[in-house]
Give the backbone structure.
Amino acid sequence: MWRTPAPPSNETQRLRALEACSIMDSPPDPRFDRIAWLARHIYQCDLAFISFIDAQTQWIKASAGQPTQASRPREQSICQLIISQGQALVSRDISSDPRFAGHPQLDGPRIGFYAGVPLLLDDRLPVGSLCVLSAAPHMLGAIDIEPLRVLATIAADEVELFRRNEELTRHSRIDPLTGLENRRAFDEGLARAASRSQRTGEPLALVMMDLDGFKDVNDRFGHPAGDALLRQVGAALAAMERRAGDVLARYGGEEFGLILPGADARAAQKVAERLHATLGNAGIRRPDRRRLTASIGVAHQHASVLDIDRLVASADAALYRAKQEGRDRIATAGEPLAGEQPRSA
């Protein structure tokens, strides 16, 4: 009888490794397509696919053979068992295999033969799977999964290449002054988050923060004083606890953005409050000894109406409202004020 397996003991580490690769929701890649094609032809099966599994979703990176879903919830995936155990999974006929009785995926097209092996990073972190399956059961002869293991190793090497390339280009996404991610990383992260939202149906939230009176600091005390403040702000914000997948970046000048995939209005509000408290608790002082404060705008959208340009504009308008209402506070996007325009720096 099917029981949803518990996450592996190294779930946190494997999710971090998967996130570091930036491979989820990435464009099609012929390298993975070729591996899936080889697996299908070696096993003479109906379908071969490579998938990656994060905390909530199984996402198909490449497939060969009959059409398959681009993604499905993790709890509805057969491959989650491979991730949970970090080991190969083989069944001559899943449809009659007592281990899978009641599995939700068996309510769809018939699955007979099934074999899958994990894609392992660092030889221990199962971030995905390479699987082959057919509608007909495999009832004759031994099942040799060694070719599947070899192909999975090649696929894992390609994933590792993703990760190393990401590390090599990371310096181009880091703001040298604050040590946070920069506008390029913000824009790329927002595009990825939007793709994820459209795939999963989850909402997407954005928090924008602007330092109060920063122009006054630069005008009165010079840009070196402003830069010193930005370094302190960067250090304080970098220490704030965040989920894997959240993107905290210097958006430009004295403005910062925090992308929150999957966050609804309430969750985004709580993160904004934590962001506001983090800066307040840092106790950063301007050269005139006044406490540095910030205004924050929060916006979110449901996947069904997602438009990232409107999301940014909504968060920006909420930030402007926070400035209007006295600064050093949080405002949430709602109906725009009459005549409201985007704020100036």
In short: The first strand starts at residue 47 and ends at 53. The two ends are 61 Å apart (CA to CA).
